[in-house]
Design brief:
It is built from ten helices and twelve strands. The chain has helices at about 10-20, 35-45, 55, 70-80, 95-110, 125-130, 145-150, 165-170, 175-185, 230-245; strands at about 1-5, 20, 25-30, 50, 60-65, 85-90, 115, 135-145, 155-165, 190-195, 200-210, 215-220. With about 250 residues, it is an alpha/beta fold. The strands form two sheets. Strands 1, 2, 3, 4, 5, 6 and 7 form a seven-stranded mixed sheet that branches. A five-stranded mixed sheet has the order 9-10-8-11-12. The structure holds 1,4-dihydronicotinamide adenine dinucleotide and oxaloacetate ion (OAA). Belongs to the L-aspartate dehydrogenase family. It catalyses: L-aspartate + NADP(+) + H2O = oxaloacetate + NH4(+) + NADPH + H(+); L-aspartate + NAD(+) + H2O = oxaloacetate + NH4(+) + NADH + H(+). Specifically catalyzes the NAD or NADP-dependent dehydrogenation of L-aspartate to iminoaspartate. This is L-aspartate dehydrogenase.
């Protein structure tokens, strides 16, 4: 499998450092609006930095988007139209219903697949199983340190309380997890975002109720030093999903 990466930041660097050149996965093409970032990562991976997306499209089997929701909106359709699979980290962009439908229809028409790893939250496996019945309630409470949210506060403060579609508009690079949960639950879930000077982790609490009963998950994620908005777990989930394409045994939904 030849892989291209769009967005050469914290997540992409972790993917490359972990996978480098593993049997069956060759991460070869690197694109970033900051060409230096693409060149640095290409150098580490012994790959090729490209200056426009089209330069990788006839050469890859899968593109990993690890850039931003705006980037995803620009690249998704041209990638899928070529029948290339797409792994999406900036899931928040998919809260735009028209865009999501376009992505879905294009993927189906060109026999491409779109994957969204579980990212920084815990519980999507259970939600996927629970969605066989009816899900009646789902919420996410996210607590991050001021530097993760770009705020300066002395006391904990609720920054946002409302629906996921609004949360991803207001905090596009901090709450993609709300979109993953909403898509998995097939509802615009309730979201609360708290800035808390007492925490040094990215904390995500998920509550889901439905026909199956109810569950709560809580993850206290170590953030990347280089980008404290992002949890290391998010990059790990992408790596695990990439590896799963070569595995013959799968556990969990
Ligand atoms: N699904 C999830 O659970 C999670 C998703 N994310 C999202 O994943 C994405 C990547 O995260 P990180 O690696 O932490 O970000 P980062 O900020 O460390 O790296 C992003 C890279 O993408 C590049 N970039 C931004 N916009 C671009 C564009 N339009 N075209 C080309 N390159 C562009 C930037 O120059 C940068 O090098 C972000 O959108 C982030 O919000 C982050 C954490 C969890
Ligand atoms: O990494 C995290 O903790 C969550 C995050 O930034 C996102 O969902 O965009």
């Amino acid at each position: 499998m030849i892989v291209g990466i769009v967005g050469c930041g914290a997540i992409a660097n972790t993917i490359v450092n972990e996978i480098m050149s593993e049997e069956g996965i060759e991460i070869k093409y690197f694109y970033d609006r900051d060409i230096e970032r693409a060149e640095n990562l290409a150098h580490i991976a012994n790959g090729i930095a490209i200056i426009k997306l089209e330069d990788m499209l006839d050469k890859v089997d899968l593109v990993v988007e690890a850039a931003s929701p705006i980037a995803l909106k620009n690249i998704a359709i041209p990638i899928l139209e070529k029948g290339i699979d797409l792994m999406v980290m900036s899931v928040g962009a998919l809260m735009d219903k028209e865009f999501r439908e376009n992505v879905h229809n294009t993927a189906r028409k060109h026999k491409a697949k779109v994957y969204a790893p579980s990212g920084a939250i815990v519980g999507l496996d259970g939600i996927k199983a629970a969605s066989i019945g009816k899900i009646t309630q789902a919420s996410l409470t996210t607590r991050k340190a001021p530097k993760s949210l770009g705020r300066e506060v002395e006391e904990e403060e609720i920054l946002f309380e409302g629906k996921a579609h609004e949360a991803v508009e207001k905090f596009p690079v901090n709450i993609n997890v709300a979109a993953s949960l909403s898509i998995a639950c097939n509802m615009d879930i309730d979201v609360k975002i708290i800035v808390d000077p007492k925490v040094d982790r990215n904390v995500h609490e998920v509550l889901v109720k439905g026909d199956f009963g109810e569950f709560r998950t809580s993850s206290e994620n170590v953030p990347f030093a280089a980008n404290p908005k992002t949890s290391m777990l998010a990059a790990f989930s992408a790596i695990k999903l990439l590896r799963s394409f070569n595995e013959s045994f799968s556990v969990g939904t």
